[in-house]
Amino acid sequence: MKLRVLGCSGGIGGRGQRTTALLVDDDVLIDAGTGVGDLEFEDLLRIDHVFVTHAYLDHIAMIPLLVDTVGEARSMPIVVHGSAETLRILRSHIFNWLVWPDFSSIPDRGNPFLRFQEMRTGESTHIGGGRQIVALPALHTVPAVAYHLKGEGGSLVFSGDTAYSEPLIAAINSIPDLRHLIVETAFPDALHELALASRHLCPSLLALFLDRIKVDPEVWITHLKPSRAQTTLDEIANYRGRFTPKALYNGLELAF
Q1: Summary mean pLDDT of the chain
Q2: Closest CA to 203 of 168, 227, 169, 230
Q3: Cα–Cα distance, 16 to 213 (Å, whole number)
Q4: Parent domain of 171
Q5: Is the pLDDT of residue 15 over 90?
Q6: CB-hemisphere CA count at 13 Å for 21?
Q7: Is 255 contained in some domain?
Q8: Would you say residue 256 lies in a domain?
Q9: Is the pTM of this model over 0.90?
Q10: Which residues form the Metallo-beta-lactamase domain (predicted)?
Q11: What is the spatial order of strands in the sheet that 21-24 belongs to?
Q12: Which of 11, 142, 212, 255 is the most buried (most CB within 10 A)?
């Protein structure tokens, strides 16, 4: 499997600042933030699945536009995967005929442009070619999951937005072939209380998180807030554990 970073910022505000979107091979999105908007039409047309970590706007903003753009040109619906609560939020507050049309009933319910597929924590979804994606527990201010991507050459875990989470750490430690761990760190330590309140990580909490990891992945940092990104990275660089976390960036490709 191959993952390409389309967006990994915790906000907007400058050239290259795109919110969370990860393209797996050429047909699967993990979250669909503003980074999806940089793809060409032919690239958008290839996307068959969107796995959503949670329903916050920076992670789902481009799903409505994606479906609207390519729906009529496809022979099969785009499938959006997520927890029951995440899908309920999308149905109730996005695809509700008020904010956006309900593409799960367009052109009709028997032949829609969009289909929702509930995914429970621990459940594995096969997406063809021997590839699997497993929902892992995460801890955020709304129901959220992380994702474990299983390829023939190893595994990758994307934390999504999460606070320190023992169940997530346990799930990560159960993956012996983990090659890459993408983990969020939104705020610097000066905003430790804000990180706790909003259920994000800061460098000191990231250190606690990484110190509990027993497997040996390469660690990548995502979801840095643009105004504090360099400060946060400088603090992460002071980590003295066995990992050397590096910043994720748009265009980076990870193979596994």
Answers
A1: 97
A2: 230
A3: 31
A4: 2-249
A5: no
A6: 32
A7: no
A8: no
A9: yes
A10: 18-205
A11: 114-118, 78-82, 49-51, 28-32, 21-24, 2-7, 253-255
A12: 11
